[in-house]
């Protein structure tokens, strides 16, 4: 079901298809809805802060076919400006049938829609890196990056987020990461022109590739934008209960940071600038 938020009747509207690759904790679902609905709520806040204000229209499709989802068709994206792939408990380097089908769909969309924007969070970040020829796998340390974490910004990141600070804080929930970033060469000439820059916008001690950026085309983030305190604690517990996180002291320390403020809205604002330039008067050039 479409969700539409417009600050004013005349506001420009960004239309996003959210590809849900997981389901939230039942308590989160009862309070905030599916991950697609949470994304909609979060980007609505960012759209209101845009100059000029933006409306946000989203639809969502649950794509995990082994649990009742479906892979959309290319035609399903005709009226959308971009897509966002959510986080997931699945491995983006895995070869589940639905993951391979999703990669095929993304490849066709990338080649047929040069105007289309590709966004990814956590699993989505890793899957889009894989699409473009990057390597995804477990962190060399084999441990998890959890909870409220500092991300050091590259120059590109500072320009994207329009900040002169050298870092942001976001919530993390992953063991896998982009081990080798994609390049124009790894993507292939049918996907990217040879001189295309795929920039990294941030890094941490655990994860050297915290996000990828291609001008007017792609924005990914390993960290989560829209997690609140309850979501952080619940998602950690899901992974503890499932056996993914075995260092319980690490999990407890991360859960204790769940209440800390983070920069998720600033990241969402940067993503919306892919679609509509934000004339906020801060003097930052376009990236």
Automatic annotation (TrEMBL):
<dbReference type="InterPro" id="IPR044992">
    <property type="entry name" value="ChyE-like"/>
</dbReference>
<protein>
    <recommendedName>
        <fullName>Glutamine amidotransferase domain-containing protein</fullName>
    </recommendedName>
</protein>
<dbReference type="GO" id="GO:0005829">
    <property type="term" value="C:cytosol"/>
</dbReference>
<dbReference type="InterPro" id="IPR029062">
    <property type="entry name" value="Class_I_gatase-like"/>
</dbReference>
<feature type="domain" description="Glutamine amidotransferase">
    <location>
        <begin position="115"/>
        <end position="224"/>
    </location>
</feature>
<dbReference type="GO" id="GO:0005634">
    <property type="term" value="C:nucleus"/>
</dbReference>
<dbReference type="InterPro" id="IPR017926">
    <property type="entry name" value="GATASE"/>
</dbReference>
<dbReference type="Pfam" id="PF00117">
    <property type="entry name" value="GATase"/>
</dbReference>
């Amino acid at each position: 079901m479409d969700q539409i938020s417009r600050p004013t009747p005349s506001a420009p509207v960004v239309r996003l298809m959210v590809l849900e690759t997981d389901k939230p904790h039942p308590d989160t679902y009862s309070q905030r809805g599916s991950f697609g609905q949470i994304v909609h709520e979060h980007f609505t806040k960012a759209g209101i802060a845009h100059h000029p204000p933006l409306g946000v229209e989203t639809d969502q499709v649950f794509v995990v076919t082994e649990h009742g989802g479906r892979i959309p068709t290319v035609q399903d994206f005709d009226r959308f400006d971009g897509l966002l792939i959510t986080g997931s408990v699945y491995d983006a380097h895995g070869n589940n049938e639905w993951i391979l089908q999703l990669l095929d769909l993304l490849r066709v969309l990338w080649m047929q829609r040069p105007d289309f924007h590709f966004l990814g969070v956590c699993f989505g970040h890793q899957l889009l890196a894989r699409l473009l020829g990057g390597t995804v796998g477990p962190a060399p340390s084999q441990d998890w990056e959890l909870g409220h974490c500092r991300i050091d910004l590259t120059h590109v990141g500072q320009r994207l987020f329009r900040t002169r600070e050298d870092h942001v804080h976001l919530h993390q929930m992953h063991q896998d990461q982009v081990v080798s970033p994609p390049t124009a060469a790894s993507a292939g000439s049918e996907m990217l022109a040879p001189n295309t820059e795929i920039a990294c916008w941030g890094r941490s001690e655990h994860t050297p590739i915290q996000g990828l950026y291609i001008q007017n085309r792609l924005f990914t983030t390993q960290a989560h934008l829209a997690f609140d305190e309850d979501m952080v604690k619940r998602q950690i517990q899901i992974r503890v209960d499932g056996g993914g996180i075995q260092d319980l002291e690490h999990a407890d320390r991360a859960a204790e940071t769940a209440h800390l403020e983070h920069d998720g809205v600033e990241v969402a604002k940067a993503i919306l600038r892919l679609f509509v330039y934000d004339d906020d008067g801060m003097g930052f050039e376009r990236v």
